[in-house]
Amino acid sequence: MRKFSLLFIISIVLCSASFAQLSRDQFAKLESALGESSFFDGHLTGFMLYDLDEQMILFEKNSHQRFIPASTTKLFTLFSSLVVLGDSTQTLRYVREGNSIKIWGSGDPTWNYKKFDQPNIAQLIAPFEQVIFSDANMMSPAFGYGWQWDDYYYNYSAERTSLPIYGNLVQVKKVGNAPSVFPESFQSMVFPTQRTIRELERDFHSNRFYYNPNNFRAREEFIPFIYTPELFVDLATAATGKKWSYQPDSLPATHEILMGTPVFPILKEMMLESDNFLAEQLMLMVSDRLFQRLDTERAIEYMLKTYLYDLPDEPQWVDGSGLSRHDLFTPRTMVALFEKIYRMIPDQQLFELLPTGGKTGTLETSYQAEQPYIFAKTGTMSNNHSLVGLIKGKSGKLYCFAFMNSNYPQKASEVRREMEKVMLMLRDMI
Fold first, then answer.
1. N or C: which end of the chain has fewer CB within 10 A?
2. C-alpha angle 361/367/368, rounded to 5°?
3. How many CA atoms does the CB half-sphere of 351 hold within 13 Å?
4. Residue 92's closest CA among 127, 128, 137, 144?
5. Would you state the pLDDT for residue 264?
6. Distance CA 282, CA 285 (A)
7. What is the set of domains in the chain, with CATH numbers?
């Protein structure tokens, strides 16, 4: 009887192991799709497929090689936010001094940005005659290490600040053949030009904006402005109806905190729309929560030494958004990170956060199928495209994968089409 029981247990284990693995033919098909003479043979490609239930690698190719991850870096920001921030943001740190209130921002990006719940800043300052703002706790520069300088006038490259307002963006609308901008205080900084430009463009060094009346289109709806403390207090004064002034005092050890808005909607917007500004501000909030100062580099160092010390390959991680070409991750590190996220939050929340093929976010127009099968974060910049997340096989089972591409000469759309062929084939295998 004991012998029969032991044989039965062994057979169950062996069957489970064989079920978790790819067959020889399936393995060969994947090798052919990603190997020599395939589309992916013309550039560096890394891939890993991982069985989350069995905790087993089913297939890998160049999973030890480092790739520029682009916006899949936001998975690191997501993990850090889930670990450190909890349920809500901390909008402000402040002290009361008689009829004055002194304010230090904590990185909260929601003030008059998109459709987020609003922090109660106006209610906080209402009893005070004087509002004094300081950004002395902001240690990180406006732009991240390795960002492209010529991205400065695109909305995906808004500056990082301690207390953003309007997402640090100017909104642009077309009225006749001229731009109308908001906040309205920027309208006096808009000038016509005869240069052959089609959009409203900002000067590199100043908040002066130019357009050509002959061919102005206004397809770029938002343009970053250059932050200065003086500009910020003017915008804050107009937004609250109460006079703000600037005084760069250090944050005292004893102070109060204004809790802000729920974190989850910010994470969802960052992930679905790949919002770089939100990602960068989230890492500043992580730093504020940990150290009471806004220092992305220090927050990253802390996360790598504590919660992420056990990743298979040490990441080169420098920013929250993935705008930097200095970010370098391996596919197997991306899978290990994603597994941490997968184990941390309920499935329903995870699926809300991940773009869904053919349905939501950055995957709305790709990986279309009657039954969605790809739930993943995209990452794209010139000559680099990655996809990291979950694939649901025809069996209904979920697997984790990382599919990373660098140094290709084609358009990203062509790379995505070839990737989709591989993922469809994989879906039908598993």
1. N
2. 90
3. 11
4. 137
5. 97
6. 5
7. 22-81+282-429 (3.40.710.10), 82-281 (no CATH)
